[in-house]
Amino acid sequence: MQAQFEYRGSSNLMNLHSLCRLQNSRSGPSIMPSRCDIIIGKMPIQRLLISTESSRPNFLRPLGKISRSYANLLHMTYAKKEQSAKVSLDHWRALASIVDEGGYASAAEAMGKSQSTVSHSIQRIEELLGTRVLKVQGRKAVLTEVGKVVLRRARFLLAEAANIERVAHTLAAGVEAEVHLAVDTIFPNQVLLPAFKAFTEEFAETRIELFETVISGVSDMLVKGEVQLAITPTVPQGWLGNRLIELEMRCVAHPDHPLHKMGRPLNERDLSQHRQVVVRESSERRDQSAGWLGSEQRLTVSTMGTRIQALCRGLGFAWSPVIKITRELEAGLLKPLPLEKGSTRFVVLYLVMADEQGAGPATRAMARHIETQVATACKAMESSTSPDNNSW
To answer: In terms of C-beta density within 10 A (0-12 exposed, 13-18 middle, 19 or more buried), how is residue 374 classed?
Structure first.
C-alpha cells in the first residue's frame, strides 16, 4: 500500500516511522512505504526504496541531519496506490469477451485464460468503478445500463490499442506482412479479385487475409481492430467511409416457383406464405437484420453462393444483387418476381479504413486498387446501359 504525506519543519529526521506516523494494527497487515522521494526544493537529495512486506523491520536508519532553512522545503511524496489504480486493457477485454461469447466459461476459453481469472477481472472493474457492469438473468450474464455505456467506450479503447500495436509493427517492418480486409458478401468478385491481382503485382510478399461477412459482421471486425480495410453497407459509429458503389437488388425466384404461377402483381401477404431464403448474419451478436423478413418460412444459409443455388432449385425467393445472379437470369434459372412495389432495391457500399493515419503502404495500396477497379467496372457498365442507370 502507499500513502501521501508532506513534511515541513524540524531540522533533522531521525526516523522514517516517526515522520510518517504509519499505524499498524494487529488485525491488519503491516504497512510499509514502497517508495519515498526526499526532495529539497527541486533537488532530490536521497531516495529510499523499501519493498512492501507483511512484516516490517523494527528499525530504520536515520536519514541524517538537514539544515533548518532547507528543512522547511522538504517534501516526502508518496502517491497512494488505491487512488491511482486504473482498469487495465485486460480487464476490458474480459468484459467484452463475456458479452461476445455469451458467458464466463466461453470467454475464458476464447481468451485462453482460466474462468477464475476472467471472473476476477469483472470483480476488479466493479470495485474500481464502484458499480455493477454485469448482472445475471436466468443463466446468462448481461450488461447493466452502466455496463452498456462503459463497454461501448471500452471497445473503442481496445481497437485503438490494437491500432497502436499494428502501427508499431508496420513502422518496424516498413511494409505490412499481411493486409486483413472484411468484405460484405454482396460485393462483386468481378471487382474484388482483379483488385487483388493488381495488388499482388505491387506487393508480392504481402499476404491477403479476406473475411467474407454478412450485414453487421464487417462492422464488428472494424470495432475489434481485426481488419485494416472493410467494404460494408453500414459504417460503424466513429469511422468514416468513402462511397464505393451502389448495387441493385431484385426479388427473384425460379420461373416454376408457385409465386410466378399466380399471374398477378404480388403483395407482402403473398410473399409471407412462401419460403424466403436468407443468408445468416455473421455478427457474433446477430442482433441486426437487413431488408424484408416477413415470411415465417425461411431457409437460412451461410453463404451467398448457397443461397443462389437454393433459389435456382426452387426452394424459395430472395432479394439478390443483380451483379451476382446475371448468369442465372440470362440462363432462365431465375426470374424477377412481379411485386406491386419494392421489387427493386439499392444498397450503397462504403470503403472504410480502420486507421486512416496509421495505415501502412500496403493497406493504402489495397484501397487504391479496389477504388480503381470499381471505377473501371462502372465505366464499362455505363457504356453498355442507359446513362441514367449508375448502379449494378
So the answer is: buried
